[in-house]
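Posting this for the archive.
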Amino acid sequence: MAASAMEAFNKKLSPLNAFTTSFDTEAGQVGEKIVIPFVPEFANNGSTSVVSFNRGTNDYDKNITTNINEATINLDSHLFTNWQLTDQQVAENAIAQVETFGGQKGADLANSVFVSIMSSFTIANYGTYETVAGSGAITLSDLINARKSMVSNGGDPSQCALLLNSDYYAGALGLAEFNSDAYGGSEAIRKGELPSIVGVPEVYECPTLPLNSEGLVGLLVHKSALGVAFRYNSPNSGGQSAYTRVDRLSNDVGMTMGYRQFYKPETGVTFAVIEALYGYAPINGDACVRLTTGSS
C-alpha cells in the first residue's frame, strides 16, 4: 500500500517540478528553515554579466557575475491522511485491491498539498496576468500573449512550464492548431498530451488548481517563481517502537512522504498514516504570468 500511495503522490505533484525545489529524504522538523539557492536575474532581462577578458589585469575575479541568492523556506506545513483495516478486511481483500486503496489515499494527500502550495499564486504575489474567456475557452492567442508577457518580464520561455486546470487543458487539446496535421504530431489525440506549446517545453494538467478567488485557471511559470521544500517527518526516537512499520518513501528526485503503521491487538485493527512535511514561499514576482477569468 505504501508503494502505491507514493506512486500516486508523486504523479499528482509532478507539476511542482516547474519550480525551484529542495526535495530531500533527510529528516526534518516542523518549523525548520530550508535554504534554497536561486539565480535572481532572468537570462534575457536586458542585463549582462559577460565582459571581454583583459590580459593585462587577468581579472577573472572582477565582480561582474550574477550572484546566487538564497530563499528561506519554512517547513510549516504538515498534512496527513490515514486509514484502517480490520483483520477480516485484510483476509478478505486481495493485495491488488488494497494497493488500489493506497493509491487513492496518496492522491488525496497530494491534492491537498498541491492546493495549499498553489494558494501562493495571487495578484498580491504575482502581478502579471492574462485574461482569458470562461468555460475552458482558451485560444492560441491567449498562450502567445502570456508568453509575450513572460519575455517582457525577462523570462526565457524555454525555461518555463505551463500549468492549466482540467477545463483549460481540455480546451488546449481541442485547439485546431494542435491537431496532428497542424501540430506535426498526434500526442494530443492519442495520449491527451501537449508536450510543448509556443516554445514552453512542459505542460501540466492540474485538476485541483484553485481559483484563489481570482478566477485562476492557469500559470506560465519560470522556476524562480516559487520555492518548495519537502523533508521526512521522522518519529522521535522514543516513539518508534510504538509502530509496526516506519518508513520514508521517496522517488528519484527526492520527493518524500512519510509512512507509519501500527496495530491495536485489542480490536484487531491495523492503522496506517501517510504524511507530508513541506514548505513554500514566493521568490520572484516577475516569474509568473497568471491566466485568469477575473472571477471567483
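The two ends are 37 Å apart (CA to CA). The helical segments are 2-12, 87-92, 95-118, 140-153, 166-173, 180-183, 187-190.
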